Amino acid sequence: MPLSELNKPFSPGEIWEARKRLKPYIYSTPLLFSTGLSQITGCEIYLKMECWQLCGCFKVRGAINMVASLSEGERRRELVTCSSGNHGAAVSFATNLFRGAKAIVFVPRKAEKSKLAKIKSYGAEIIPYGQDFLMTLDRALEYAEEGGGIFIHSHGHPLIIAGQGTIGLEILEDIPDVEVVVVPIGGGGLISGILTALKSANEKIRVFGVESSAAPGAQMSYRDGYCHERIQIGASIADGLMGTLTPLTFELTHKRVEKVVAVNDDQIVQAMRLFQEEEQLTVEPSAAVSLAAIISGEIDIRNKKTVLVVTGRNISWERYQSLLTDGISPKQEE
């Protein structure tokens, strides 16, 4: 599919089409009430458990939706993507479902080893390149264009957004009277899909976004009124959020998101500890930012029925244990 499709209009109907397409392949993940987190935050906290999804993260929804939409001829071409880990694993998994498909995954050189192992386990070829997501993205785009491959964007393609939006449909089915949904933001594909699904049913549902302070592209874009596709990305333990918005994800969200806040690594680690202490949940840093924003006071949702989208669990035991035991060291922040 050409990159021009990244600028195609997007409608809620595409999310319903994605749901039908995905039904044979994915889990409808549970939505669990958290007594402990509700008491701590002063609101009704429900956890949308995408950390229990196939591949250990929500990304498989968008990846399967896009790969399933390709023709057999398109699948026989190389399916190229760029990822810090989770999207690459999802694309690798999705190509396994369809005979003849092959995935090429470009990753930053500092990508986490446990995520690389998961990508490899599903059969994709990994090409390390660049020091951050944007450098890696540029090379992946060049490679796809030079070799005639199909580029599968991690967050900017309508089919990816539609797949992620099926999470919103499931939330509405389980809690029709939900008042607030808090969603992590990297490139904006997840919040674009979820927000579109929720607002198509009830415009009064408030949707908050949370990103890492190391990659505040959404905050900058909403503040300035245009999409910042190129920003300076710092270092963060939340590797899955080290992207920026695209024109489409900006267009879908900037007038409808209640607020976007940024959290730092220390706040993320605190939230990871709370997930473990209160719910015995092991989550990766990117999945903890929504809770981090609430406990830090950046989002005030007291007495509201609130869903946190817990996006993934893909972190090695050694790294997880180190973060919770030792916190953030200067070396980790480099």
General description of the model:
This protein has 334 residues and is an alpha/beta fold. The protein folds into two domains: 9-58 and 157-333, 3-Layer(aba) Sandwich (Rossmann fold); 60-151, Rossmann fold (3-Layer(aba) Sandwich). The chain has 15 helices and ten strands. The chain has helices at 13-22, 35-41, 59-69, 72-75, 86-96, 113-121, 133-147, 158-174, 189-201, 217-224, 247-253, 265-279, 289-295, 317-326, 330-333, and strands at residues 31-33, 44-49, 78-82, 102-107, 125-128, 150-151, 180-184, 206-212, 259-263, 305-310. It is globular and about 55 Å long. The mean pLDDT is 93.
Helix and strand run:
HEHEHHEHEHEHEHEHEHHEHHEHH
| Average pLDDT over all residues | 93
Sum up the overall morphology in one term. globular
Class by alpha and beta content = alpha/beta
Kindly provide the name of the CATH class of the largest domain.
Alpha Beta
Distance between the termini: 37 Å
Radius of gyration: 18 Å
Tally of DSSP helical segments: 15
- CATH topology label of the largest domain: Rossmann fold
Q: Classify the helix fraction into a percent range.
A: 40-55%
- The tally of structural domains comes to 2
Contiguous uncertain segments of 5+ residues: none
Strand order of the largest sheet: 1-2-10-7-8-9
Q: Compute the number of strand runs.
A: 10
CATH architecture of the largest domain: 3-Layer(aba) Sandwich
Query: For the report, how would you describe the main beta sheet?
Result: 6 strands, mixed
**How big a fraction of the residues is strand?**
5-15%
